Amino acid sequence: MYRARMAQVFGVDPIEVERWIEGTDPVDTEAWLRTDFNDPSIPTTVEAAGRLWRCDVDPDRRHLLAALPFVPAALGGWLSAWAYGAPVAPAAHEGSGPLVGPSDVRRIVEARQAFGQMDHRFGAGLVRPAVVDYLNGTVTPLLRGRYTAQVGAELMTAAAAMTQMAGWTAFDLGRHGLAQQYFGQALKLSKAGGDALTGVWVLTSMAHQAIWLGHRSQAAWLSRAAVETARRTQAPPRVLAPLLVREAWIVALQSSQAGAVDAHAARQVQQLLDEAERVHAQGGSDRDPFWTAWYDEPELGSEIGLCWELLGAYDRAADLANAAIRAFAEKRPRSAQINWMNAADAYLGMGEVEQAVETARAAVPLAGSLTSARSVERVRKFADRLEPYAATVQVREFRAYLNAELAS
């Protein structure tokens, strides 16, 4: 019965669901994505996104969405549709919903910004239900309304940004298959709106998720596509800079995976970071999307520090993480928590086990207070890295403290 219901939700054969659950065969995503890839029209795009939002607010279907597997092969399909699919011509719409004007679009953008601020402060668990409800209850009727071609394009872009938010919060909660579906729909809505800047933001979000899950090749494809799109469309400096840093992070990850740091990769990372810093120094412009405000100097410094940690420059990594902690302490608790862990990783790389453990200990209460599975997982991954020192008093005490705090 469970498999039959899941097949009904996603429009696939029950045998396909069996493969997802049992893992006996590679997942064939063709049935999932056929509608999206074969028909890029605005009506089909709106219907596909709306179907996802409806399922996510339906109590009988929500848990099925949460159990979706992450499918690496699907990333290639989303990326191909974005990069090589035919452009979608904007068109006026005469639907059954309300008359939509620029003020309606602005309200969606303002709501997206407000949800983003809440997410930074409290984690995804608090904000995600409100985001999904907003998509289904507010955005869906507007997409079915009456609007000019210009307003329609802006509406698609705003819907893409809110859909990205739903994907990001699913990622933060560890619901990776669900996050993947939202990111894919956000990318398609970006294309429907003809907005490359929103599209590259979604691509770099997808790359971040792929990094987290260890799919480094796919992360590299997504990151390069974001950078290439930004260059081709002459994106503003504050858009291009974080994309370059993200690409540098992925190059550093791929190099570290091979064991010894590759000199060529290290030079490539340095070149990307140098360009990112030069570009960021050019300042803002009137073309900057709202999301660039979150990629300020501390945020960029945080990701730059990850690059240096992977390349073995642990002192530089620790300095950048500590600077980010000071900047984020009040306004972005989750970012502060993640940077406590970045600093702890850097100290561990130096061989300073006691300082690493002490630093990580400061992050544990934050992980417990945030509604963010990612924050908790970050601390647990660090605890696993301490296994070579498991016999030491510091590590035994830290692990006991961690288990007690997260259990309370």
Describe the structure.
It contains 20 helices and two strands. The protein has helices at residues 2-10, 14-22, 30-38, 42-57, 59-66, 72-84, 102-122, 124-143, 149-172, 176-192, 196-212, 216-232, 237-257, 263-280, 297-310, 314-328, 333-350, 353-369, 373-385, 393-407, and strands at residues 93-94, 146-147. It has a two-stranded antiparallel ribbon. Helix 7 packs parallel to helix 9 and helix 11 runs parallel beside helix 13 (237-257). The longest helix has 24 residues, at 149-172. It starts with a helix and ends with a helix. Pfam families: TPR_8.
Offer a concise description of the structure:
It is built from 20 helices and two strands.
Average of pLDDT? 90
* Share in β-strands: under 5%
Instruction: Give helix % range.
Output: over 70%
Helices and strands, in order, run as: HHHHHHEHHEHHHHHHHHHHHH
Tell me the layout of helices and strands.
Elements: H1 2-10, H2 14-22, H3 30-38, H4 42-57, H5 59-66, H6 72-84, E1 93-94, H7 102-122, H8 124-143, E2 146-147, H9 149-172, H10 176-192, H11 196-212, H12 216-232, H13 237-257, H14 263-280, H15 297-310, H16 314-328, H17 333-350, H18 353-369, H19 373-385, H20 393-407
Antiparallel strand pairs: 1-2
InterPro entries: TPR-like_helical_dom_sf (IPR011990), TPR_rpt (IPR019734)
Pfam families: TPR_8
